[in-house]
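Weekly sync, protein design subgroup
Attendees: M.S., D.O., the rotation student, P.L. (late)

Item 1: inverse folding check
M.S. brought a backbone from last month's batch and wanted to see whether the design step gives back something sensible before we order anything. D.O. pointed out we never logged the input encoding, so this time it goes straight into the notes. Structure tokens as presented (418 positions):
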């Protein structure tokens, strides 16, 4: 764990969005990084677009890889470390998959041997290109790649949990081969924690890779159900951090809040700073937090078409690099350099069965019980039902009280947890 929680941002280029890789302009990147570094943040998460870097299974473009290294070096000059997402994959409602995996060449992203060979070679190449850079944090396999594995994706690449296990292990190994000893991880959107038929599971998220990554977006039903000013909305990121700990074998496994943002109109622009402050404050109250990486650095330019409306205004800075109130909130939090939080001693029981994950989703009994505890001033964490009586496990995490959802929520006979 770092001595203090790390603060960073998901880098969205102000000029050309992620299409900037097609016409890489180092001066524009430097100006963007200057505006990020001015906020006092310490790292960026960057996104090569997979089809631009590996347009053919046997062709990884040297110039594109060199541009990625130039970006990392420019970040180092500004005191910023760099995490690189490899398999993009999916960004801001758009899929970016190389032609050699689609239509006439349709092959499963998670099970086809040729695709796996190509993916591993690509991840290994990116990691190796940055392995000697001191500011290189490590690789994330891709951005929310689990969205390709099940519905609601319109054309999913179906796989079993065992096949996803094998895919994750092989891809993480490729990153380690390219850059030994770095912080290599995988990252999924919250279907991993909430969707019963999602083959990317909580156990994989909490046990494979160097840290657990969670992505918190309150447009998943939380803000719709509870409103912009509510305990569930303002504590949702903290909930995912603490929910992830139930499945971890390491009682102090670091958790990275790798994506979180203030999506309009559920979080209107005039309330975004207050939401940001509440979300960050509550996340910092979670022990073993590796860092917070806000989505995103710069707004999407209105010159670009067809993005969902909310995507245009998620930046901490405008597309002209002007900081918003949300940027000042994050900068203030980073300047305080918060250290580790105290242990959470009350644990809410969650089902270990991956086909019962919907109980943890918005509207589910675990979700509702957690936020009832939080509203009562309790600082809850979670524990699997199969570990609820494991005194060694509880002691290692500092847990002194275990409660079930039915002890917390009102029941037809009346009564609730006192």
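Designed sequence read out in the meeting:
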């Amino acid at each position: 764990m770092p001595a203090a929680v790390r603060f960073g941002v998901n880098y969205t280029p102000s000029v050309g969005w992620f299409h900037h890789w097609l016409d890489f302009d180092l001066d524009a990147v430097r100006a963007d990084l200057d505006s990020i570094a001015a906020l006092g943040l310490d790292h960026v998460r960057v996104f090569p677009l997979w089809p631009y870097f590996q347009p053919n299974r046997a062709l990884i473009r040297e110039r594109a890889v060199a541009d990625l290294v130039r970006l990392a070096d420019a970040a180092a000059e500004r005191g910023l470390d760099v995490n690189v997402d490899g398999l993009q994959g999916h960004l801001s409602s758009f899929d970016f998959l190389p032609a050699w995996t689609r239509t006439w060449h349709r092959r499963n992203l998670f099970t086809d041997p040729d695709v796996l060979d190509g993916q591993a070679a690509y991840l290994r190449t990116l990691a190796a290109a940055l392995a000697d850079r001191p500011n290189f944090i490590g690789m994330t396999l891709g951005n929310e790649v689990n969205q390709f594995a099940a519905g609601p994706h319109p054309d999913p690449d179906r796989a079993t949990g065992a096949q996803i296990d094998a895919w994750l292990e092989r891809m993480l190994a490729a990153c380690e081969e390219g850059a030994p000893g770095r912080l290599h991880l995988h990252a999924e959107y919250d279907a991993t924690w909430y969707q019963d038929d999602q083959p990317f599971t909580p156990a994989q998220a909490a046990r494979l890779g160097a840290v657990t990554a969670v992505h918190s977006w309150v447009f998943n039903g939380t803000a719709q159900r509870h409103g912009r000013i509510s305990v569930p909305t303002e504590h949702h990121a903290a909930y995912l951090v603490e929910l992830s700990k139930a499945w971890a074998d390491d009682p102090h496994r670091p958790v990275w809040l790798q994506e979180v943002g203030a999506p309009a109109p559920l979080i209107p622009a005039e309330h975004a700073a207050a939401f940001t402050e509440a979300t960050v404050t509550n996340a910092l109250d979670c022990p073993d937090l590796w860092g917070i990486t806000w989505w995103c650095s710069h707004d999407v330019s209105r010159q670009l078409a067809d993005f969902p409306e909310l995507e245009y205004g998620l930046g901490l800075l405008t597309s002209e690099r002007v900081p918003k109130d949300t940027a000042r909130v994050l900068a203030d939090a980073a300047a305080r350099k918060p250290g580790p939080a105290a242990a959470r001693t009350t644990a809410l029981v969650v089902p270990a069965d991956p086909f019962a994950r919907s109980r943890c989703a918005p509207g589910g009994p675990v979700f509702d019980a957690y936020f009832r505890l939080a509203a009562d001033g309790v600082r809850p964490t979670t524990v699997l039902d199969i570990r609820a009586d494991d005194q060694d496990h509880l002691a290692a995490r500092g847990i002194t009280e275990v409660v079930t959802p039915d002890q917390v929520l009102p029941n037809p006979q009346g009564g609730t947890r006192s």
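Discussion: The longest strand covers residues 81-87. The chain has two domains: 6-336, 346-408.
Action: P.L. to compare against the previous round before Friday.
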